[in-house]
Predict the structure.
Amino acid sequence: MAFGSFGEGGPGMPMAEINTTPLVDVMLVLLVIFIITAPLFQQAVPVDLPRVAASRLDEKPQVLRVSLDGAGRIHLDGAVLDLAAFEARCQEAAQARGSSELHLHAERTTPYEEVTRLMAAAQRAGLQKIAFVTDPGAQAPAR
């Protein structure tokens, strides 16, 4: 009994067709397994949780919005502050609520030294989260 000998090449030539039957069998078995096990992932273990009369805790961080103009003036809540007054306000915010953030709006023409001085003052005051606010619609100038 010689398999694949019905062609023109004779009994010594290899068969050039791919048998896809095992592939289809494996895929059908996997499909059936996934159909059976998929609903099991949706079910949760029933747990009887304790009932406590407590309010939900929604603590949002206090956000300090600071603007730094091109001349190095610090604007906080519409008032112009010097560096010492700004650091005192940051200290008050850090002590009042542990999770305070600083959002820094700095003009493009602001010297880098002024930005780093402001960031160092905020860090000394206890603020750990500092975010730089940018204009996402504007493109960087070509150099």
Remarks:
- The chain has a mean pLDDT of 81.
